[in-house]
């Protein structure tokens, strides 16, 4: 049973690490996309930024819940 608990904790940490890494890359991509905005014909970039910012918010809340649940 002790080994099972250790494995589960390890999986949680790996998942948390993956989520944190994903969060960093999403934020980097948002910064990059913001440099590509022009006065015209970039509505698709605005939409993409909005979607990515929503995902950043979701991941941030998930990670906060995990940390609170300790």
Description:
About 85% of the residues lie in helices and about 0% in strands. The chain is mainly alpha-helical and about 70 residues long. Helix 1 (about 1-35) runs antiparallel to helix 2. The longest helix has about 35 residues, at about 1-35. The radius of gyration is 17 Å and the shape is elongated. The protein starts with a helix and ends with a helix. The model has no long low-confidence stretch (mean pLDDT about 90).
User: Runs with pLDDT <50, length 5+?
Assistant: none
Biggest sheet record: none
Give the DSSP E fraction (strand runs of 2 or more residues): under 5%
What is the alpha-carbon Rg in Å? 17 Å
Total strands: the figure is 0
Could you spell the SSE succession in H and E letters?
HH
Provide the structure class.
mainly alpha
Tell the overall outline. Answer: elongated
**Roughly what percent helix?**
over 70%
Q: How many helices?
A: 2
Summarize model confidence as the mean pLDDT: 88
Through-space gap between termini: 19 Å
List the helices and strands and how they pair.
Elements: H1 2-35, H2 43-68
Helix pairs in contact: 1-2
């Amino acid at each position: 049973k002790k080994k099972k608990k250790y494995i589960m904790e390890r999986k949680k940490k790996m998942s948390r690490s993956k989520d944190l890494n994903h969060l960093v890359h999403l934020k980097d991509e948002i910064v990059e996309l913001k440099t590509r905005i022009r006065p015209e014909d970039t509505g698709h970039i605005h939409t993409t930024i909005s979607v990515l910012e929503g995902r950043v918010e979701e991941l941030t809340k998930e990670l906060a819940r995990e940390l609170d649940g300790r």
